[in-house]
């Protein structure tokens, strides 16, 4: 599915922060081509999906504990912010009367 060989290697390296299930990564690869260099995702369920669709792409895990000096530089950086787990539950912002 999102395997690098099928993505059309345009030479661009793509990195993905708070990757979720990789939907944004698929869209960026479809639009720009390129190769996914790494993911950074902590959710176990999402990580399993990433590993299945991109088996050769490493998952860096927690972005706050990653040693970024050791991570390959990328040309395109995607980010699925905000990471919902860190925000916790909030009351919805809705106009009065709705």
Tell me, what's the shape? globular
Give helix and strand order, one letter per element, not per position: EHEHEH
**What distance lies between the first and last C-alpha atoms, to the nearest angstrom?**
42 Å
Q: Give the assembly state of these chains.
A: single chain
Give the structural class.
alpha/beta
Give the count of helical stretches.
3
Strand coverage percent = 15-25%
Largest sheet: 3 strands, parallel
* Tally of DSSP β-strands: 3
Integer-rounded radius of gyration: 15 Å
**Strand sequence of the main sheet, in spatial order?**
2-1-3
Q: If you had to describe this structure to a student in words, what would you say it looks like?
A:
The protein has about 100 residues and is an alpha/beta fold. Helix content is about 25%, strand content about 15%. It has helices at about 25-30, 45-55, 85; strands at about 15, 35-40, 75-80. It has a three-stranded parallel sheet, covered by helices on one side. Strand 1, helix 1 and strand 2 form a beta-alpha-beta unit. The longest helix has 10 residues, at about 25-30. The radius of gyration is 15 Å and the shape is globular. The termini are far apart. The model is unreliable at about 5-10 (pLDDT under 50).
């Amino acid at each position: 599915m999102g395997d690098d060989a099928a993505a059309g290697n345009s030479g661009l390296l793509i990195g993905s922060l708070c990757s979720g299930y990789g939907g944004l990564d698929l869209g960026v690869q479809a639009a720009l081509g390129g190769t996914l260099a790494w993911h950074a995702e902590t959710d176990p369920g999402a990580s399993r999906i990433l590993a299945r669709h991109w088996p050769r792409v490493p998952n860096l895990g927690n972005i706050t504990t990653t040693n970024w000096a050791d991570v390959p530089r990328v040309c395109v950086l995607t980010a699925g912010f905000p990471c919902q787990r860190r925000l916790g539950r909030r009351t919805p912002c809705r106009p009065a009367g709705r």
